[in-house]
Amino acid sequence: MDKLLQGKTALVTGAAKRIGRSIALALAQRGANVAITYLASQAEAEKTIRALAARDVDALAIRCDLRDPESMQQTMTSVIEEFGRLDLLVNNAGIFESEALEDISVEQWDAMFATNTRAPFLMAKAAHPHLRAAKGRILNIGSLGGLHPWATHAHYCTSKAALHMLSKTMAKAWAPEISVNCIAPGMIVQGEVEEAYENFARKTPMQRNGTADDVAAAAIFFATAPHFITGQLLAVDGGLGL
Is the CB of residue 5 less than 8 Å from the CB of residue 27? Predict the structure, then answer.
């Protein structure tokens, strides 16, 4: 496989497992050194670091509380101390929750925005001088829910819609040094699939649900595509949103 990212450094938040892990591994497969963050998933993070190192790159796992601005700044400091540069920030970490709109509490609303919207903003701010120096890139992981209203996920959908707009705003504000794009995954499944997910697969034009590797492939596109591509939102949903 072409080492298109040889000598580059990427930071992927929330990458101990699931989509973040797949993105981190795909970046390493193409030669990037990779730092990942985790909060409670230390065992999974250690396993991911071993998998990254097996791809002959340098890897670092950092415990980071994305609700805490100081923790995010410390994470960025650790990345620069370890690797000396940052070329790509992937704001992947997020939380998901179902709740009837009328039952969403202030605490639930604030927690959703703290992780899904405020954290990418603060992490991007912390990364800004380093990405500007490297003429780097930011990739935010949004959601199909940020494009379509899901009645029982109002706080989630709204937080992701805000992230989509933040991505476009950052792309305009930080050009030409930094390109900023966003991926909006649809129904992504791993492992055993419940009947509810099978229903989504039947509704999807491509007749299947997505995988973490589908999202990772889109991430590689934005990580290696011309720097001129910026401010774009790419749905990875098999046509579910059509």
Answer: yes
Question: Which residue, among 167, 135, 155, has the nearest Cα to 233 in the 3D structure?
Answer: 167
Quick one: pLDDT at residue 193? 67
Give the distance, in angstroms, between the CA of residue 227 and the centroid of all CA atoms in the same chain: 18
Contact 139, 181 (CB under 8 A): yes
pTM of the model: 0.96
Contacts of 108 (CB under 8 A, 6+ apart): 97, 99, 155
Is 197 annotated in the active site? Answer: no
Neighbours of 42 (CB within 10 A): 12
The one catalytic residue among 33, 120, 128, 156: 156
Please check whether residue 29 is in contact with residue 217, taking contact to mean a CB–CB distance below 8 angstroms.
no
Express each pLDDT in 53-78 by its tens digit: 999 999 999 999 999 999 999 999 99
Q: What is the band of 191 on the pLDDT scale with cuts at 50, 70, 90?
A: confident
Is 15:38 a contact under the CB 8 Å cutoff?
Answer: yes
Could you tell me whether strands 88-91 and 59-63 are parallel, antiparallel, or unpaired per DSSP bridges? unpaired
- Taking Cα atoms as reference points, which of 158, 175, 177 lies closest to residue 118? 158
